[in-house]
Design the sequence.
């Protein structure tokens, strides 16, 4: 059993060397259509709560250009890098593909779940960028339309989706969805209790 | 809460994940507080900028730091939240704190991991500086795409190595 674990570990580090470029290649291939999907979904989601609907999110190269149709042409438009939102696709996919035995059982189904959760987090991240921009950067209109509380809540949500969630989702999805394989990899499976001598609960 | 989720949370893996998510949420909420940001995160980011400048001076660059901006006559980089390596440290440190292991192993892991991630972050800053000097058009891609992905992978790899080397070693 320990020999199998050691070979699993070696396989993981070996596979990580090609899973990173593979994930990067897949990201490069799908980036264009995915950017369009993100901008379209975020715009639709914002417009669901507007009357009349006025949010515009369009893709220009790698940026989402955010603005409102009911403002003068010269009013503020924000360009935000979409790569900053969805780069975490690369470490997530790289970790999953490097995991020995990830295709076992419902492995592919779990991969679809991981991508779905990532996509949902990306759409919400863009939505909160849009809302935070509207709440803080459109001068008197922002102050008339959004309360201080709304600005604080949107600021928190923007931060949460921009940094904590973006950086931690790869590990959370990897361990959460493939926990049997991951725990097997690190030597912490159900059959093997970890070394807890002297540890706090 | 479904029965399968309750059962999962009773397993060692479930307990680890739940603890990890809670500690991580608390840690990120804590560093987002304005007093913590002003008195801890910003000075730490300035310290990281000084580390980067020191490394660049060792490589022969005339690098200086003004607030959180590292600059020379050739290029300048501003180091903000998200670029200071704190996220990688939190991902790693929370993984250690949530994992059932002896406190001695945890302290050792925290100390070594902190140093390792610091070193990695200095390499990242130096690499980004030279990317800006020699290939400015690649800077944005290198910054957002390459190095942020590598930072996450590095933190996760450090955690895996720690668990394998120190946390579960005696159980095998």
Sequence:
């Amino acid at each position: 059993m320990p020999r199998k674990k050691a070979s699993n570990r070696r396989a993981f580090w070996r596979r990580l060397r090609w899973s990173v470029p593979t994930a990067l290649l897949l990201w490069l291939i799908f980036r264009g259509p995915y950017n369009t999907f993100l901008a379209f979904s975020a715009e639709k989601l914002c417009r669901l709560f507007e009357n009349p609907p006025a949010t515009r999110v369009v893709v220009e190269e790698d940026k989402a250009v955010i603005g409102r149709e009911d403002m003068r042409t010269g009013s503020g438009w924000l360009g935000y890098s979409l790569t900053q939102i969805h780069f975490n696709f690369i470490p997530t996919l790289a970790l999953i593909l490097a995991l020995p035995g990830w295709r076992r059982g419902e492995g592919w189904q779990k991969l679809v779940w991981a991508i779905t959760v990532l996509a949902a987090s990306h759409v919400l991240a863009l939505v909160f960028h849009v809302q935070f921009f509207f709440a803080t950067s459109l001068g008197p209109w922002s102050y008339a339309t959004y309360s201080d509380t709304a600005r604080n809540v949107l600021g928190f949500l923007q931060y949460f989706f921009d940094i904590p969630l973006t950086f931690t989702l790869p590990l959370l999805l990897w361990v959460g969805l493939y926990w049997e394989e991951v725990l097997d990899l690190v030597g912490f499976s159900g059959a093997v209790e970890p070394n807890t001598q002297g540890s706090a609960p | 809460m479904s029965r399968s989720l309750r059962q999962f949370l009773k397993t060692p893996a479930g307990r680890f994940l739940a603890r990890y998510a809670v500690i991580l949420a608390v840690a990120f909420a804590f560093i987002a507080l304005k007093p913590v940001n002003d008195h801890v995160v910003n000075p730490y980011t300035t310290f990281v900028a000084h580390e980067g400048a020191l490394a660049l001076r060792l490589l022969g660059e005339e690098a200086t730091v003004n607030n959180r901006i590292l600059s020379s006559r050739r290029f300048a980089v501003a180091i903000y939240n998200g670029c200071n390596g704190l996220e990688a440290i939190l991902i790693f440190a929370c993984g250690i704190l949530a994992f059932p292991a002896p406190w001695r192993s945890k302290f050792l892991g925290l100390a070594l991991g902190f140093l390792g991630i610091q070193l990695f972050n200095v390499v990242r800053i130096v690499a980004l500086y030279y990317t800006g000097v020699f290939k400015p058009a690649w800077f944005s891609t290198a910054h957002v795409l390459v190095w942020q992905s590598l930072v996450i992978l590095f933190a996760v790899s450090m955690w895996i190595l720690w668990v394998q080397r120190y946390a579960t070693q005696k159980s095998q």
